[in-house]
């Protein structure tokens, strides 16, 4: 902490950086969050967590390059009458303070190691009352619509915290339980036992998906990924074959013929039982649909805004495909599966995340105190996953 009552944080500062003409985060000294139940009774339900590690997500890349979340960030700052948003939503840390209600009702204790669910749900909407918290209609997102965890301390409702046993999950891996949970949610939407699976887009969530599909019993796992480094990682994580998508189709939104043909040939011309789309590009969505077998499942997780074109939409109907749209994590069902997969050392998942995706936490861990924007941006382009250390 820089001075009494302040802390180090990485922020987007709307007063100094116009969204459309800037990029990156600023290292700043900002007020340390406090629990003040007299001024705000809701603070009684909150916790303050001292951040150990924070994961850098694709969403954070979008904020860095100003391609995502402009409206959510600027609108929420205006509502709070603030100009600085502390970024970040993947984290592990230590509980240092609890409000009165949080102490009484959550079972959490000061000194406990925790991760956090990044979607802070309202608890009032129809979806929440049905227990469908992952599709809450009025949720807040840590590091986007409220201050996040790229900071020495973060204040959150205690109900979103997830106790983590660091004797079973090393802290560097524990920090990315939230994005790993995205892949868990995607993989548990369908039964993968004994089935062939193709993952379209082997970024961090796609790489997690390869690990999880294997652990959940997939008989054959294929990958489609343009980045040579990520293709090599996908193979190291257990993919049977990984294909370069090749040349684009006749339009920017069309499937890549090379990618589809490669998957079909790898499955004897039938197509895969489950196609998991993780890239979010229109062409990749069409790759997944066209590479799925008749009667197969297409799991859609990759996210880009705007309109998409479905190539040969009639084939979705005629081939009897089932499309599954997946967002976030089922709270907290997904977290239980995540814990089980990561704590089970026999499946090798935790070791492979640390050794392959995090490259042994050598070049992928960035000390926040020495944050340098240019060096950080280089690392963003070199590694699929980074951690900030506080």
Structural class estimated from helices and strands: alpha/beta
Give the C-alpha Rg: 21 Å
CATH architecture assignment name of the largest domain: Alpha-Beta Complex
**Multimer state:** single chain
Strand coverage percent: 15-25%
Topology of helices and strands:
Elements: E1 6-13, E2 26-31, E3 46-56, H1 58-64, H2 70-80, E4 84-86, E5 90-98, H3 100-105, E6 113-116, E7 119-120, H4 126-129, E8 140-141, E9 153-157, E10 161-163, H5 171-174, H6 177-187, E11 196-200, H7 204-215, E12 220-224, H8 228-236, E13 241-243, H9 257-266, E14 272-277, H10 282-291, E15 292-300, H11 313-318, E16 322-325, H12 333-343, H13 349-357, E17 365-367, H14 373-382, E18 386-389
Care to describe what's here?
With 390 residues, the protein is of the alpha/beta class. It has 2 domains: 6-163 and 358-389, Quinone Oxidoreductase, Chain A, domain 1 (Alpha-Beta Complex), CATH 3.90.180.10; 182-325, Rossmann fold. Helix content is 31%, strand content 24%. It has helices spanning 58-64, 70-80, 100-105, 126-129, 171-174, 177-187, 204-215, 228-236, 257-266, 282-291, 313-318, 333-343, 349-357, 373-382; strands at 6-13, 26-31, 46-56, 84-86, 90-98, 113-116, 119-120, 140-141, 153-157, 161-163, 196-200, 220-224, 241-243, 272-277, 292-300, 322-325, 365-367, 386-389. Strands 3, 5, 6, 9, 10, 17 and 18 form a 7-stranded mixed beta sheet that branches. α10 (282-291) links the parallel β14 and β15. The model has no long low-confidence stretch (mean pLDDT 96).
């Amino acid at each position: 902490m820089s001075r009494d009552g302040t802390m180090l944080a990485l922020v987007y500062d709307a007063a100094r950086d116009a969204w459309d003409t800037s990029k990156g985060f600023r290292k700043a000294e900002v007020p340390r969050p406090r629990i003040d139940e007299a001024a705000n009774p809701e603070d009684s339900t909150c916790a303050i967590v001292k951040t150990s590690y924070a994961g850098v997500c694709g969403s954070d890349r979008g904020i860095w390059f100003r391609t995502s979340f402009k409206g959510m960030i600027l609108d929420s700052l205006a509502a709070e009458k603030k100009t600085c948003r502390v970024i970040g939503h993947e984290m592990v840390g230590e509980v240092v303070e609890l409000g009165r209600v949080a102490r009484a009702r959550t079972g959490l204790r000061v000194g406990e190691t925790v991760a956090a669910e990044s979607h802070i749900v309202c608890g009032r909407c129809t979806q929440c009352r049905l227990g469908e918290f992952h599709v809450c209609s009025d949720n807040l997102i840590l590091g986007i619509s409220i201050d996040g965890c790229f900071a020495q301390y973060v204040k959150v409702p205690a109900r979103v915290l997830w106790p983590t046993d660091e004797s079973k999950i090393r802290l560097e891996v524990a920090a990315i339980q939230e994005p790993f949970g995205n892949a868990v949610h995607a993989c548990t939407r369908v039964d993968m036992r004994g089935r062939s699976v193709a993952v379209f887009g082997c970024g961090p969530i796609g790489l997690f998906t390869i690990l999880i599909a294997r652990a959940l019993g997939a008989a054959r796992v294929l990958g489609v990924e343009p980045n040579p480094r990520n293709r090599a990682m996908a193979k190291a994580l257990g993919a049977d074959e990984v294909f370069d998508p090749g040349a684009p189709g006749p339009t920017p939104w069309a499937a890549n013929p090379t990618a589809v043909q490669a998957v079909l040939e790898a499955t004897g011309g039938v197509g895969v039982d489950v196609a998991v789309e993780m890239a979010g590009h229109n062409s990749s969505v069409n790759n997944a649909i066209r590479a799925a077998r008749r009667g197969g499942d297409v799991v859609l997780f990759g996210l880009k805004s705007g309109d998409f074109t479905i190539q040969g939409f009639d084939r979705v109907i005629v081939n009897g495909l089932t499309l599954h749209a997946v967002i976030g994590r089922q709270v907290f069902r997904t977290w239980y599966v995540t814990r089980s997969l990561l704590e089970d050392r026999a499946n090798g998942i935790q070791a492979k995340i640390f050794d392959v995706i995090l490259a042994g936490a050598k070049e992928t861990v960035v000390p926040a105190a020495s944050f340098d924007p240019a060096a950080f941006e280089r690392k963003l382009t070199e590694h699929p996953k980074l951690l900030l250390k506080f």
